Amino acid sequence: MKIEKIEAGFSVSGQIFPQDIPRLAAAGFRTILCHRPDGEGTDQPTFNELEALARQAGIEMAYLPVESGKVSDDDVRAFASTYAGMSKPVMAYCRSGMRAVTLWALSQAPVQGLPAVLSAAKSAGYDLSGITYRLAGGNEVPAHVSHHQVLIVGAGAAGIAVASSLLSRHPGIDIAIIDPAEIHYYQPGWTMVGGGIFRPETTVRTMASVIPAQAKWIKAAVAAFEPEHSRVLFEGCKLIAYDVLVVCPGIKLNWHGVEGLVDTLGENGVTSNYRYDLAPYTWQLVSQMRRGKAVFTQPPMPIKCAGAPQKAMYLSADHWRRAGCLHDISIEFYNSGPVLFGVKEYVPALMEYVKHYGAQLHFGHRLTKVDGKAKRAWFAVTDSEGGQGSLEVEFDMLHVVPPQQAPDFVRASPLVDASGWLDVDQYTLRHRQFANVFGLGDVTNAPNAKTAAAARKQAPVVAENVLAVLSGHEMQAVYDGYGSCPLTVERGKIVLAEFGYGGKLLPSFPRWFINGQRPSRLAWWLKERILPPVYWKAMLKGREWLASPARQDR
Question: Do the strands 360-363 and 365-371 form a parallel or antiparallel pair, or are they unpaired?
């Protein structure tokens, strides 16, 4: 018997036997729920036999048999009523546990939401993708389902860029983009907002103004994917079919992944440049601070723009230096990882600034808890030999970067790898299992930096390969892992890190023009003056400046 925990108070397993009852009692289960009809299997003990043993062990037991593959609405209602009145924790079983999970999911989906129940079941090893439509509240799949040649999930930088790249190559192509957001953000600008350089409103456009006019905008949230049927289920229990699916909904910032963080964000000196509404608070704190301790954190990889956590530190320290109060401020950087930056060629230049600002670096420190009112933060510490510990730190200002993961509706789908990221070939960006599915941007498991610059290079690759699949031709476009991280080490200077797979340096400009391994004023000018209009007027419009894909046979 293998017990799988689904949620607090509810676990499932396959068939149990008399010898399993003491183990269940020792594990603290107070109720056993049987969903397997007597006589279904030749080696199956009867319910009455098990109930007698359970009663002796102090465990309640209930019989709610369901025929395999035929979970009815009446069964679900009976389960919900029975489960609500049971002493917890409950262990439910059938032949494999699938009926038990299905009953739980159908009863809980209206309360917890489709992604949550799919994810919980998947984590326990149960695939409920075959009943997503029913879990979403539907009955029978409608005979007519709307259809598009290309369906793009997500209207962030990656989604808009790939739609525009497709339309620039094939103006008549039928494209629909699903995204519920009203606003589109230029997120690379938020570090500059937090440094007092950009005004926040310059990083915002309405979604309607950036989605290509030739594409249909479906303003809704995706609930689930059905790749085996080439369909996507979205809110309102509606289905859309596609010839090719492009998945690029971005990344989820897991603010709840740090205990106490959501209760203090935006006050008590706790801020983050990873949110539009908080980046101005970062600048407020920095510009008003004259003495005390400033703490900056970086969570485990992968994260969006891995250089952003330290960019906030450099720009803050530079302001305090210019204001003449740097010597009165203690700066500490707590990084979950083992190194300052993942590409070693850029580390020497960054370390010069770390020393210049007097910042203290702490590696192997993961933020776990924040108490804003008490001005305390706690870290889980892993030393160089793998030893574990904890550390409590005081602060006056705390800049937090939250742990990050793929969106819940992606993690709960059949499209992800074992780590929960969209599973694509790192060169073609096509899904490894479903040949008519592609992915790009922060959601994929390709081992590149998760930056807007990466999406700018990925979009033409995906566009060309999507058109190849639609026309029945071989894919030729490949992505080399390019990513760019303009590390703002001081106001007016940037270390322009550009690299691809394996940390290979991929500079866009001659070394005599911009040496990416040294701080540069030209790189700052590029970041401040050139990249924002390139984003709005080129990348999102299908104009691929320095972004043409490589083509080769693999």
Answer: unpaired
Residue 553 has pLDDT above 70, yes or no: no
Distance CA 421, CA 411 (A): 7
Given 94, 237, 248, 305, which residue is catalytic? Answer: 305
* Chain centroid to CA 126: 21
Identity of the amino acid at 152: I
Q: Which of 353, 358, 320, 313 is nearest to 335 (CA)?
A: 313
What are the domain boundaries of the chain?
4-112, 147-251+406-551, 255-402
Catalytic residue check, 325: no
**CB atoms closer than 10 angstroms to residue 478:** 20
Q: Do domains 147-251+406-551 and 255-402 have the same CATH topology?
A: yes
Q: What angle do CA 281, 284, 288 make, to 5 degrees?
A: 150
Instruction: Reply yes or no on whether the pLDDT at 554 is more than 60.
Output: no
- Is 485 known to be catalytic? yes
DSSP state of 202: G
Counting Cβ atoms within 10 Å, is residue 347 exposed (0-12), middle (13-18) or buried (19+)? Answer: middle
Which residue bears the tokens 């709610």?
A: 64
CA distances from 169 to 151, 173, 463, 468, 548 (A): 16, 9, 8, 11, 12
| CATH class given for the domain over 147-251+406-551 | alpha beta
3-class secondary structure per residue, 255-302: HHHCECCCCCCCCCCEECCCCCCCHHHHHHHHHHCCCEEEEEEECCCC
Burial track 85-112 (b if 16+ CB lie within 10 A, e otherwise): ebeebbbbbbebbbbbbbbbbbbbbeee
Express each pLDDT in 435-485 by its tens digit.
999 999 999 999 999 999 999 999 999 999 999 999 999 999 999 999 999
Which residues, listed in sequence order, are joined to residue 288 by a DSSP beta bridge?
A: none
CA atoms within 13 A on the CB side of 485: 27
Comparing C-alpha atoms, which of 18, 95, 7 is closest to residue 61?
Answer: 18
Strand 31-34, strand 60-63: pairing: parallel
Rounded-to-10 torsion of CA 164, 165, 166, 169: 120
CB 11, CB 91: distance < 8 Å:
yes
**What φ, ψ does residue 286 adopt, rounded to 5°?**
-65, -45
Helix (H) or strand (E) holding 377: strand 376-382
**Second-level CATH architecture of 4-112:** Alpha-Beta Complex (3.90)
Strand order in the sheet with 388-394: 365-371, 376-382, 388-394
What backbone phi and psi angles, to 5 degrees, belong to 369?
Answer: -155, 145
- CATH of region 255-402, choose from 3.20.70.20, 3.40.640.10, 3.90.79.10, 3.50.50.60: 3.50.50.60
Digit-coded pLDDT (tens) for 512-522: 999 999 999 99
The rounded distance, in Å, linking the Cα atoms of 66 and 64 is 7
